[in-house]
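Q: Hi! First time doing this. I have a protein sequence and I read that you can turn it into a structure. Is that right? Here it is:
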Amino acid sequence: MNILFTLTPAFDPNDGGVQRTTWKLGQYFTEQGYNVSYFSFNHEGHVEPEFGNLFTAKKPDKNKNPQNIEELRKVLDQIQPDIVINQMPYEEGLRDTLAELKSSQGYKLLGCLRNSLFSFKSNARDKMKQLLPAPVFKLLDNPVGIGLVQLRHKFKHRRDLKAIIDRHDYFILLAPPNREELRYFVGDYKKEKVVSIPNSIPFVHEDLSQKEKIILHVGRINISQKRSDLLADFWEKLHKQVPGWKFVVVGDGPYFKTLKSEVEQRNLPRIALEGFQTPEAYYKRASVFMMPSAYEGFPNTLLEAQSYGCAPVLFNSYKALDWIVEDGKNAKLISPFDTQLMADEVAALCNQPDTLKHMQLSALGNAKRFTIERVGNQWEEFFEEIIK
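A: Yes, that's right. Below is the predicted 3D structure, encoded as structure tokens:
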């Protein structure tokens, strides 16, 4: 069986969740004997895959450039895929090209959701503040104004989601709660096309012997999604409660310089801003993993942290989270976006070694739900159903 992944960012597993997920699935499918290829609409910045064949756009402007679309057509003709996994179903040009060609090529076209469908709905006021001119935001900053903006978003997103469902043979969601989000926008529209398959982790590490007094955050440093503007405030409220502990932040992004300035201005001790790094060595040493995101789809960093025995403390800010982890057992979920409460809960964990170790062991057990073997089997069973 020939499988092709399509994506718009550069093919680099350390540059984002979509790329990391694509890399892991590509490795698994290759090891199971499938012929795997990738097509990226980015013309530079790629990492050569260890598994499968990489094809890339030759020109700038990604899928907006007709020459790159033509390059995709050539690749499809060359490899003759049985299944195309479109990691960017919201990209209209890519979506329409793949839908147009599947009638002649005969492949099954899968569109994969890679984020919460409520990313705007649940954060409407913050998004409005970020995107609108100050006078317009002031005018709309009330229940009626916010409600009208949410209603407009609902109608627009409904149109986009129906187009995605129409143009793909199947729409792959990350978790069962995403179905509730989808139903809010489109009801039960063509629900027979909707399938849930989660993200995965390579394996689970059982050894906790290398754990140190480290609280870890891993992620892209930005405000709109990751809420990196809360990191310094969190540590300012926490550091006096946990003497001997260190806060390590791994990641880079548009807010990194500002975060560094904040840390310096507040004169915060025992915090290390590591910038972009591969995170595995940090997971291995960290005892607690904190995540302040406003929304996620199915966060790879959370699964990876649990797979190394990190006890996660997270803002309960998106629907899938209650399904991914169990509050009070293998993670602690905090009301968004209360940094004082998060600091107090992390302090309670750090200062109760037995409770912390119990949660770390439970995190390892939870991570086993999402090993690539289990998730990969779900994909293979799905392929058997749709390829007759």
